[in-house]
Design a protein that fits this description.
Shape: globular
Largest sheet: 8 strands, antiparallel
Strand content: 25-35%
Distance between the termini: 39 Å
Mean pLDDT: 95
Strand order of the largest sheet: 15-14-11-6-5-19-20-21
């Protein structure tokens, strides 16, 4: 398939399967200016499949650069009220949401003050976490290959060759190269659901991650349960929040994370900032030391955004059977890289599966930042409430 065919096929699976757009439904498409080709393809697919209206909402990272460089210090965390109202209306009006991922402006903020850059979270708006928690929108995030992204991932190839290669690998991990991608995703979803079920049968009290640079124990709530792949809105619309997705995830106890962890892949924030060699030390659930080979100041700025920003809201396990990890490619995009390796997230957690008492204690924050801590060299062990240690992942393979 050529790029045009892949573009249309990816847009279709995002609309029909990922977000599962309903007849007459309004669709919000979130994109950077550099992702206009995919945004247009998604809009066309949505209309072909019966959408009532499609709104493409563009973010310009160059305008963000101007703000960080020149705006008054006390204005950098300000978000206009209409950004908030728009976000909340997505849920109120039961809008389908399709977001595009992939960096478009590489290193755009690298020469700016990291403390200032760390205070501006846009295009992330914290109210979207409430919309997600309320389960009022059917949504998905899909990769959008662009030339800047391709050059970052494959620096030794020409720009044209790099973009072809990126499309080839994106098509593979999104299962577009199968005769029936939707059926292929259904099969993978069953496998992930089965893995989540086996984890839930053990009722672990904690997970222990151990490997090079990592010795971290993460406590779980009594009602913490692992989930995978499929989500469902309060109105019963089934959707896949991430395409591709290869993880099983749970909400941890934010008061119980102790030890240290080294990231195993670069982290790319929503504004394109790259964090390399991230290292975090936890005590009593709180990130008390944050360092990195690149972007440490920006990450410290994010972690300083309230008490919850320094605690965990998610722990996710990824095995080696997924298509992303097998490629061995570092995509510099959280959507793809987090589904290649086990990861944790600083910031807001989820009520999903928790009892009312545990839901009151789960982490709450204005941020949610996933970073990858897993690899074949990092073992994961489950600790039961009786203190027994049960191997969960070894060399990237399930042991339960």
């Amino acid at each position: 398939m050529d790029r045009a065919d892949l573009l249309e096929r990816l847009a279709d699976i995002a609309v029909v399967f990922g977000a599962n757009v309903q007849p007459g439904q309004t669709v919000s498409v979130g994109a950077d200016h550099g992702q206009f080709e995919m945004a247009r393809a998604v809009a066309a697919s949505a209309y072909r499949h019966g959408a009532g209206f499609v709104d493409v909402y563009y973010f310009d990272p160059y305008v963000k650069r101007a703000r960080i460089a020149f705006a008054a210090e006390d204005s950098l965390s300000f978000v206009p009220s209409w950004y908030v109202h728009r976000t909340l209306c997505l849920g109120k009006e039961r809008v389908a949401r399709i977001s595009l991922s992939g960096p478009t402006a590489i290193g755009l903020l690298d020469d700016l003050d990291p403390d200032r850059a760390g205070r501006d979270q846009l295009p992330f708006v914290k109210e979207i976490l409430d919309v997600i928690a309320d389960r009022t929108t059917n949504w998905t995030v899909i990769p959008s290959p662009t030339e800047p992204w391709a050059r970052l991932v494959y620096p030794k190839l020409s720009p044209e060759e790099a973009l072809d290669r990126l499309w080839e690998e994106v098509a593979h991990v999104c299962r577009l190269d199968t005769p029936d991608p939707i059926a292929a995703w259904g099969e993978r979803a069953q496998a992930l659901g089965a893995a989540a079920g086996r984890l839930n049968d053990r009722h672990f009290d904690a997970l222990h991650f151990e490997g090079p640079g990592t010795d971290l124990t993460i406590g779980l709530f009594p009602s913490s349960t692992f989930h995978a792949a499929r989500d469902e809105t309060v109105d019963g619309i089934v959707h896949f929040a991430n395409l591709p997705t290869e993880e099983v995830y749970a909400t941890p106890d934010p008061a119980r994370a102790d030890g240290h962890v080294d990231s195993t892949k670069p982290l790319v924030l929503a504004d394109g900032t790259i964090i390399r060699g991230l290292r975090v030390r936890f005590e009593g659930g709180r990130a008390v030391e944050v360092d990195a080979d690149q972007g440490a100041g920006v990450m410290r700025g994010r972690v300083a955004m309230g008490e919850g920003a320094a605690r965990l809201g998610e722990v996710a396990l990824v095995d080696r059977e997924g298509r992303i990890g097998r490629l061995g490619t570092v995509f510099y995009d959280t959507l793809l890289d987090e589904n290649a390796a086990s990861h944790i997230a600083l910031g807001d957690g989820s009520d999903q599966g928790l009892t009312d008492d545990d839901a009151k204690r789960r982490n709450r924050s204005h941020i949610h930042i996933d970073f990858m801590i897993g690899s074949d060299d990092v073992g994961v062990t489950g600790i039961t409430r009786d203190g027994d240690r049960v191997p969960v992942l070894r060399d990237g393979s399930w042991q339960i």
